[in-house]
Design brief:
The protein is an alpha/beta fold and 521 residues long. Helices cover 54% and strands 7% of the residues. The protein has 19 helices and 6 strands. Strands 1, 2, 3, 4, 5 and 6 form a 6-stranded mixed sheet that branches. The longest helix has 27 residues, at 8-34. It is globular.
Length: 521
């Protein structure tokens, strides 16, 4: 039996439970980011470094992530907690929007509560609530825009939901270009829902204004920056998406498909992905009523799940698609999973009913283990968080070499040949002076716009390469009067071996930074 109108006591019970879930999970995240169990990911460190030089946009993303980092680190300092505080706030807002949309707008508080439980026990949302990456503000904006759009179509909506829609859209585009997909989806959803509901007066004109103004305001600073930087950001997106460069020359690459499909079972967890697909399938074929969805809700959620999820699944047949690219589809996907799971939970006649508690318990175990890294004995590739450990130890080691191996530590800069290592060095080397990134044949990145000047001629440097014994590139050798033999550095994290690096002590910078030789995108 599906949830129907409930009494005040029942409503208060679900709202109180939802509030408890939001507060407890937020407290756990704040404790975790302050516990030092993992270091910043390379992308997190890079976005923090961006925040020290605010611009209209950046090489691969819009400006919102840098602005958020600037605000939180002004409050809490340039620390791991300061960088990641924004992620915990974003995760809290995602939950508030989920429950507001399902529990309040749709008046299904029980389903809304389960949507919170499911979201908090998927790896996608767990990671998104801890790591300060662009997916965090993107998901906040996507959920806000999605439910604002639905609310805007109700008879008593007024103009406020359209304003909210425009604001969420503008901020989302400034967070990540994926938000632009919302515009056609909003138009399609509005079209397909028209057959099962009537819209308030001026709905379409207000919608077009909200979408046009929101998308335009969000995109304008990105376009300004790209127009003054040879459109490198656009080229980067086209290349990453397999629409330009050598990635566009081969139409089918079948070996990428299993990898991408498997990644979706990983980021959502296998059992919740089953419920996502079950709910989405019923919504698509018009059987959403069997899991408690109205026809309007079914069409709405189907539009906001299947086109994005299906596109990236098919696109993985052409090029490498990262696991998180389809993240926005799980805004609707988690809601669909909640409806499907509540329906499953209430079917006491099902032969699977005895196992219904297994799924949330398994999710709770995942949630606990992810936040208790110090008790997990797995290292290396067996532990997916291994790449987030050892960076602080590397920073201390490089700082010690600066102080002890050179005659004038104040005239020693640090650099690498990958943006990730460069960003981590910028954050973790004592003093947090910006590191530099030399091009030895790699793709362009944001650090190619921040180069050392001629005034640094004669300075010494520490060059850090990922992994051990990679060898010294000729381009780096030509930059200095002399370079000492390689030093292999094995980092440690909480008493356990972590990442390995090769470090070179370089003396007498020529003052000539090598010109780019790699791909622009």
């Amino acid at each position: 039996m599906h949830e129907t109108t409930t009494g005040t006591e029942s409503l208060l019970k679900y709202w109180a439970a939802a509030l408890a879930v939001i507060l407890v999970t937020t407290a756990v995240r704040l404790w975790f980011i302050g516990s030092g169990q993992i270091n910043l990911a390379p992308d997190e460190a890079q976005y923090w470094d961006w925040s020290r030089t605010l611009q209209f946009s950046y090489y691969s993303k819009g400006p919102l992530i840098a602005v958020i980092n600037r605000i939180t680190t002004m409050i809490f300092g340039a620390t791991e907690f300061g960088v990641r505080f924004g992620a915990s706030v974003g995760a809290m807002l995602m939950q508030v929007l989920l429950f507001w949309g399902v529990g309040h707008v749709w008046k299904r508080p029980k389903v809304g509560l389960w949507a919170l439980i499911i979201a908090n026990t998927t790896l996608l949302y767990i990671a998104g609530g801890v790591l300060m990456t662009t997916d965090n503000p993107l998901m906040v904006c996507w959920l806000g825009a999605m439910f604002s759009l639905y609310r805007a179509g109700e008879e008593d909506a007024g103009w406020l939901p359209f304003v909210a829609l425009g604001v969420f859209l503008a901020l989302g585009v400034a967070a990540k270009y994926t938000m632009l997909l919302f515009v056609p989806l909003a138009l399609i959803a509005s079209g397909v829902m028209r057959g099962v509901s009537s819209y308030p007066e001026r709905y379409w004109s207000r919608l077009l204004i909200a979408l046009g103004a929101g998308g335009g305001v969000g995109l304008l600073p990105v376009l300004i920056w790209n127009a003054t930087h040879d459109w490198v950001g656009v080229k980067h997106v086209l290349y990453r998406g397999g629409m330009a460069g050598d990635k566009a020359t081969v139409l089918f690459k079948l070996h990428k498909f299993p990898e991408y499909l498997g990644s979706q079972f990983g980021v959502v967890t296998p059992w919740w992905l089953v419920f996502v697909l079950l709910g989405a399938s019923k919504a698509l074929v018009g059987r959403g009523g069997s899991i408690g969805l109205t026809p309007r809700q079914s069409r709405f959620l189907a539009v906001f799940f299947w086109p994005v999820w299906g596109f990236f699944l098919l696109w993985s047949l052409h090029t490498k698609v990262e696991a998180n690219w389809s993240a926005v589809s799980y805004g609707a996907g988690i809601v669909l999973a909640a409806f499907a799971f509540v329906s499953f939970w209430e079917r006491s006649d099902s032969r699977w009913a005895r196992y219904r508690k297994v799924w949330p318990v398994a999710g709770l175990v995942v949630f606990i283990l992810i936040h208790l890294q110090f008790v997990i004995p797995l290292t290396g590739k067996l532990n997916p968080t291994s790449r987030l450990k050892g960076w602080s130890d590397l920073g201390r080691t490089v700082g010690e070499l600066q102080r002890t191996e050179f005659s004038d530590p104040d005239r020693v800069f640090v650099f690498s040949d990958t943006y990730g290592v460069t960003a981590e060095l910028s954050f973790y080397v004592p003093g947090q002076e910006r590191a530099f990134c030399v091009d030895t044949g790699r793709k362009m990145n944001q650090y190619d716009f921040w180069l050392p000047g001629a005034e640094m001629q004669g300075e010494d440097a520490v060059f850090v390469r990922k992994e051990k014994d990679e060898g010294l590139p000729d381009r780096v050798k030509e930059m200095f009067r002399s370079v000492d033999p390689a030093i292999n550095v094995q980092t440690m994290h909480n008493g356990r071996p972590s990442l390995g690096f090769t470090v070179y002590l370089c003396r007498g910078f020529s003052g000539q930074w090598p010109a780019r030789k790699g791909k622009t995108f």
